[in-house]
Amino acid sequence: CCAAAMLMVGRRSCNSCRCPNGKASRTKCVITWIYTPMVLVGVFMYMAVVTSEQPDKDLKQMIDVFSNAWRVDLNWKVFCVFMGTCMISGGLAQHGVFGPVLDIAANVCFIPLFVGAIYYHLATSTDASAAIVYLCLACLRLLACYLLGDGDFNVERDLSTEFAALSEGEDGRGFQATWEKRGKSVSGHS
Predict the structure, then answer these.
(1) Which of 7, 36, 106, 178 has a CA between 20 and 30 Å from the CA of residue 88?
(2) How many Cα atoms are found within 13 Å in the side-chain-facing hemisphere of 132?
(3) How confident is the model over 16-66, as pLDDT tens digits?
(4) What is the pTM of this model?
(5) Residues 90, 32: contact at Cβ < 8 Å?
(6) What is the DSSP secondary-structure string of 156-171?
(7) First vs last C-alpha separation in the chain
(8) SS3 68
C-alpha cells in the first residue's frame, strides 16, 4: 500500500525524504515509506510502558525469548523503551531528519533488528515472512544507497574534500599560515 502510494505521488514525495532523483533514489524512497509505520510501533512500545504495570502476553513472550537467548533477565520496561527508541529514531533518520550519515547508520541498525525479529518468530514457531521481507528491504535499501550511487555514501568524500581545502589554508600554505594569521603558532605557543 505504502509502496503503491509512493510510486503514484512521484518525485515530490521523494524530495520530501531528501532523495536525489534516479532509480536508486526511488527504491530507497519507497522502502523508506514502507518503514514509516515502524515509527508507530515504536510509539506503541512507549505506550505499553506508560499505560501498563505488567507486559501483555505477547510482549512477555518476546521478552522471555530474548532473555533466554542472551541469558539475561531483561526488564520489560527498559526493553520497550529501547525498542521504541530504535524504531522511532531509525524511522525519522531514514527520512533524513538527522542527516545523511545517521540515515545510513539507521539502515545498518535495522538489519540486526530484523534478524532479531526473525529469531523471535522462529523461536516461537510463528510466521517470520514479514520479518524476512523487511530484512530483505533493509539490505536492498542499503545496496541502493551504496552501489547505485545514492548521495548518502558521499558524505565521507565531501568531508575529506572540505578537510583538504582547510589543510591548504586560506592562502594555500596550509594550517600553519591559517594559524599564524590568527596570531597563533603551529606548535601551540603564541
Answers:
(1) 7
(2) 6
(3) 344 555 566 778 888 888 888 888 989 999 999 999 999 999 999 999 999
(4) 0.67
(5) no
(6) HHHHHHHHHHHHH-TT
(7) 64
(8) helix
